[in-house]
Specification:
There is one protein chain. The protein folds into three domains: about 1-60, Dodecin subunit-like (2-Layer Sandwich), CATH 3.30.1660; about 120-210, K homology (KH) domain (GMP Synthetase, Chain A, domain 3, 2-Layer Sandwich), CATH 3.30.300.20; about 215-280, Ribosomal Protein S8, Chain: A, domain 1. It is about 40% helix and about 20% strand. The protein has five helices and nine strands, in the order E-H-E-E-H-E-E-H-E-H-E-H-E-E. The protein has a three-stranded antiparallel β-sheet with strand order 1-3-2, with helices on one face. Strands 4-5-6 form a three-stranded mixed β-sheet, sandwiched between helices. Helix 3 links the parallel strand 5 (about 165-170) and strand 6. The longest helix has about 50 residues, at about 95-145. The radius of gyration is 29 Å and the shape is globular.
Length: about 280
């Protein structure tokens, strides 16, 4: 079956990807993403254009039908007279057994070597992308006149996604890199992803943080989501949270997606988009 492609647009690439994955009901590892237009904010709102992405859903492999086995018709054996057959020398199968066992072990070792080689190639590619992203981020900080270092590590993936490359900027007085509601930090992350994408020709999952701000923010948002859920249960009325960027709204949705008494939905447009927590 041919791959199915869909185009989505939003104010930036991350928002377009998030909206597309949500509408299609698939995770990132089930699709291929092509950035058609990075979008533009224009000058004072003039000449602004939305970002556009094409999301191609990979088809699920169709299971092969089980072969139909026909039972052979019973064959009547002719009656034979009992006779004493002459003893025949038995073949020595003990010598063939080690040969078969050795062939099976050799085949298994070859499969393991191929799997190890594939994993090593993927690890090498991730390491190469991480080094490239780190170098570009350090150069950006240098041009901004910011004295800081970049720590990188792999973090646990969510919802079956590819584990992101986590770049944490450390130093003194780095609040300017975060900005109001993390808007400056989001722009830095977007630029790093964009530059890496131009080099490797595919969208790499890179997360840029400043002194662990995003990790602390994620913990606070999860606590907020649970607190507001309790309030909804007690009052029986839904609540609306403050407008948030796509990545923070996603954290609220994930925190409450399995809650037995409430559910979440996003409302609003562009910068005013927010999460509502509603009773079931």
């Amino acid at each position: 079956m041919a791959d199915q492609s869909y185009e989505f647009s939003a104010k930036n690439v991350d928002a377009a990807i998030e909206d597309g994955l949500r509408q299609l009901g698939v995770s990132r590892d089930k699709v291929e993403i092509q950035v058609l237009d990075q979008g533009s904010r224009g000058i004072l709102g003039i000449g602004a254009s939305p970002a556009r992405v094409r999301i191609t859903v990979r088809p699920e492999p169709e299971p092969e039908p089980a072969p139909v086995q026909e039972e052979p018709a019973p064959v009547e054996e002719p009656a034979v007279e009992e006779s004493v057959a002459p003893s025949m020398p038995q073949a020595d199968v003990s010598a063939a057994a080690p040969v078969v066992e050795e062939s099976a072990l050799q085949a298994e070792e070859e499969v393991q070597e191929e799997e190890a080689a594939g994993a090593e190639t993927a690890d090498d590619e991730d390491e190469s992308i991480a080094e490239l992203a780190t170098s570009l981020l350090l150069r950006m900080l240098e041009l901004m006149g910011v004295d800081a270092q970049v720590e990188r590590r792999m973090v646990q993936a969510q919802d079956g996604e590819t584990p992101p490359i986590y770049l944490n900027i450390v130093g003194n007085e780095l609040g300017m890199l975060i900005g109001r509601h993390g808007e400056t930090l989001a722009s830095i992350q977007y630029l790093v992803r964009l530059m890496v994408n131009q080099k490797v020709h595919h969208w790499a999952n890179i997360v840029v943080d400043v002194d662990g701000y995003k990790e602390r923010r994620a913990e606070r948002l999860q606590q907020l989501a649970l607190r507001m859920a309790d309030q909804v249960i007690q009052t029986g009325r839904g609540v609306s949270l403050e407008p948030m960027p796509p990545n923070e709204r996603r954290l609220i949705h994930i925190a409450l997606r399995d809650h037995p008494h409430v559910y979440t939905e996003s409302t609003g447009e562009d910068d005013r988009r927010k999460v509502q927590i509603l009773p079931k």
